[in-house]
Design brief:
This protein has about 170 residues and is mostly beta strands. The protein is about 0% helix and about 50% strand. It contains 1 helix and 9 strands. It has a 7-stranded mixed β-barrel. The structure holds 2-acetamido-2-deoxy-beta-D-glucopyranose (2 copies).
Length: about 170
């Protein structure tokens, strides 16, 4: 099992889909759609932290929040190139990893893959969600915030939403 941190560079470079699940599951009924008219004026702005605990194939089944969905290739041994990881990660307002049965306010679901680009930040699309993120659309700028060996990493996500339902 390889992990992000084993590489000296941030090689996590694309999160193809980020689906934010707000646990406040307010009904869609009666909501008003707001669409920003300018890229400088998102209808919602926030910073959240996404915690990813990679399945280690040995003993963290209960704790893991992501798992590789591809078999390691000859290339992925040294560079992780081609690896695809599916995640259902806790997302928090502060940077601490939720402990025990603590329920995070938000979950992020989707998948990422390694394509070995070396960029400090990366913009990805937020393509929808539930609760506070009902039908939302926007951009999240990701930055590696912390990691522990190959088991865990935390991404800081600066989120700007341009289509909101309030
Ligand atoms: C299995 O779990 C123990 C206790 O949490 C940990 O110390 C050990 O490193 C784990 N083994 C592997 C291979 O990750
Ligand atoms: C779950 O994984 C995280 C990150 O490696 C670790 O800090 C935490 O102690 C683990 N929790 C349990 C219950 O093993």
């Amino acid at each position: 099992m390889q992990g992000l941190a084993a590489s000296s560079k941030l090689s996590l470079s694309v999160v193809v889909v980020l689906f934010l699940l707000g646990l406040a599951s307010a009904a869609a009924h009666g909501r008003k759609r707001i669409v920003s008219s300018s890229s400088d004026e998102p209808c919602t702005k926030m910073t959240l932290y996404l915690h990813d605990i990679l399945y280690d194939v040995v003993n963290n089944t209960a704790n893991a929040t992501s798992a590789e969905a591809t078999k390691p290739t000859a290339l992925s041994k040294s560079t992780f190139f081609g690896e695809l990881v599916v995640f259902d990660d806790p997302v928090t307002e502060r940077n601490a990893l939720p402990v025990g049965k603590e329920v995070p306010a938000v979950r992020g679901q989707g998948f990422y893959f390694y394509d070995k680009k070396d960029q400090k930040t990366r913009d990805i699309s937020v393509v929808g969600g539930t609760g506070d993120f009902f039908m939302t659309r926007g951009i999240a700028t990701l930055q590696l915030d912390a990691y522990e060996g190959t088991a865990y990493f935390r991404l800081k996500m600066d989120i700007k939403l341009y289509e909101c339902y309030v």
